[in-house]
User: Fold this.
Amino acid sequence: MNHSQWKTRRTRKLMGESVEESAAYVEAGYAFALGQAVYDRRTELGLSQSELARRAGMTQPQISNIEGGDSLPTLPLLTRLAKALDAALTIDLDRDTSAFRFTPHDRARPDEAPPGPGSGRGLGSVA
Assistant:
C-alpha cells in the first residue's frame, strides 16, 4: 500500500467505516483530557504549577507531566489534586468520548437543594 491509499482515522469515520483504536491511543486521549482539565482549573484559580504541587503534596514536574498528558495519575493522586484545586472531579467515560471536569466546591450542584431551615444540613450538623 502506498501513502496515496491511506485513509486517516477522520476520513474513515466520515465514510462510516469502523475505526479501531489501540489501547495506547485511547489511554493517551484520557491523559490529554485530564491534563487539560487540571490546567484549566489551575489557571482559573490563578495558581502556578509550583503552588498546585505544594498544595497537593507533589512536585512541579509531576504537575507538568499531568498537564502535558504524559502521566495518568492514580485515584489517590486524583483525590489529592481535586482537594488542592478546591473542586470535585467528575470523570465521564463512554465509548468514544471521555470528559474530566473539576467543579468548584462553592458552586451548588443542580441535584442538591441549598441547605435551609429543617434540612439537617446547617452549621454543626453531621451527615
Notes: The chain is about 45% helix and 15% strand. The helical segments are 9-14, 23-45, 49-56, 60-67, 75-84. The first helix runs from residue 9 to 14. Residues 21-104 form a domain with the 434 Repressor (Amino-terminal Domain) fold (CATH 1.10.260.40).
